[in-house]
Specification:
The protein is mostly helical. The chain is 78% helix and 0% strand. The chain has a domain of 37 residues. The radius of gyration is 26 Å and the shape is elongated.
Length: 76
């Protein structure tokens, strides 16, 4: 797909979402905003946890001693 087309489609969806939120009653709009905020915080927490786990895995792999094995090769 064309990159500009995708950008424009995403932008159109954002405008459509904003327009729908504008016609919602104020109490419902507040609930939607709160839900968006909570969802964003949850996603941030999940991403940080995943990054932390990956970092711990990388450091644990680096701390384990690597063993080398001597190999004899006969070129005759």
């Amino acid at each position: 797909m064309n990159k500009e087309f995708v950008k424009n489609m995403i932008k159109a969806e954002k405008y459509k979402y904003r327009a729908i939120k504008e016609i919602l009653p104020s109490d419902l709009r507040k609930r939607v905003d709160d839900l968006e905020r909570e969802t964003l915080n949850l996603i941030k927490d999940v991403v940080f946890e995943i990054m932390k786990e990956n970092l711990e895995e990388k450091t644990s792999k680096n701390t384990t001693p690597k063993t080398t094995k001597k190999v004899d090769i006969d070129f005759s």
